[in-house]
Amino acid sequence: VAKDAGRSRWEVYHDVYRRDALRRLSVETELRTAIDRGQFLLHYQPVVELDTRRTVAHEALVRWMHPRRGLLLPGEFVQIAEESDLINGIGGWVLREAVEFLARHPELPGKVYINVSPRQLGRGTPATDDRDAGLAPLVEQVLRANDVPASRLGIEITENGVLQATEQTREDLEQLAALGVELLLDDFGTGFSALTSVLSTPVSGLKLDRSFTVRLGDGAACDRISTAIAALVDSLSSHGVVEGIETEKQWALALGHGWTHGQGWLFGHAVAESALFPVVDTSF
Ligand code: C2E
Ligand code: MG
Ligand code: MG
Ligand code: MG
């Protein structure tokens, strides 16, 4: 870059790294107070049955209403939260909020799925006194406190999260499954997956990542892989959801390949509770 001419390469890199480190530090500091200040919210994206396009479930996606920067998507803060352990507090908030949402809307069709980071599994969260309790006891407690059956809640954990799983993580997942909470493998197809390790986890379905969906129709190989994964999912009697469907063509291809469920902007964006349940104005 011209304006950097005359400066050593080291100085330029140094500046970039310092800016990045400072930005991360300020996000981390602000994240620490964000829960207390009520700055998080959930948006809910419909999951549809592909052939009828009926909504059969919702995925809860966290957003941060930042006082200066506005509404931030998880890409801006989830990784930083995971690296600093703040993810346990945020994850606990997400769980409570989603379960309270379920309690407020008993007529809502299907489950609500929350996303859980690997760091929330197999260990204590700030919400439980027992540091080694894990996520399952917390989920059980929150469901019970809100009188919501476990069958209405689903948990998504990334393929990479499962690959990193320790013995404690697996036990936690077993306990969650035993509660009757459905577990889904998220972002399937992104990592290079040790298939046996993934398939020996008690998940009841998988979600094909959007990076795969955008390539549907790209060529025979992509379509055959998609068809094969859909058949594998079906033969294991699990659920398959195709993420990020934006076009009619992608919908038709996914359906043609044998997938049963999908999610994406073609069917609906993630919207606030107030948009899902508009307040009816009865004042006139
Ligand atoms: P994900 O779980 O794979 O969620 C799907 C992401 O794709 C969401 O982005 C969603 O808004 C977006 N999306 C859905 N349909 C379409 C589409 O048709 N086109 C495009 N371009 N995008 C689509 P979002 O909300 O930014 O979330 C990103 C990721 O952040 C999520 O990926 C999930 O891994 C993570 N995340 C979200 N909420 C939470 C949470 O509460 N806890 C944790 N640990 N992670 C979360
Ligand atoms: Mg997800
Ligand atoms: Mg996903
Ligand atoms: Mg994804």
Largest sheet: 8 strands, mixed, barrel
Cα gyration radius (Å): 21 Å
> Which oligomerization state do the chains in this entry correspond to?
single chain
The strand line-up of the biggest sheet is: 1-2-4-5-6-7-8-9
Residue fraction in strands: 15-25%
Structural class: alpha/beta
**Secondary structure: number of strands:** 9
Question: Can you give a write-up of this model?
Answer:
The chain is built from 11 helices and 9 strands. The chain is of the alpha/beta class and 284 residues long. Helix 7 links the parallel strand 6 and strand 7. Helix 3 runs parallel beside helix 4 and helix 4 packs parallel to helix 6. The protein is globular. About 2% of the residues have low confidence. Bound molecules: ligand C2E and magnesium ion (3 copies). One magnesium ion binds next to strand 6. This is GGDEF domain-containing protein. It comes from Cellulomonas cellasea.
In brief:
It comes from Cellulomonas cellasea. 42% of the residues lie in helices and 19% in strands.
Features:
binds magnesium ion, binds ligand C2E, alpha/beta, 11 helices, 8-stranded mixed β-barrel, 9 strands, 42% helix, 284 residues
How is the secondary structure organized here?
Blueprint: H1 9-34, E1 40-49, E2 55-66, E3 70-72, H2 78-84, H3 87-104, E4 111-115, H4 135-145, E5 153-158, H5 159-163, H6 167-179, E6 182-188, H7 195-199, E7 205-208, H8 210-213, H9 220-235, E8 239-242, H10 248-256, E9 261-263, H11 273-276
Parallel strand pairs: 2-4, 4-5, 5-6, 6-7, 7-8, 8-9
Antiparallel strand pairs: 1-2, 1-9, 2-3
Bound molecules: ligand C2E and magnesium ion (3 copies).
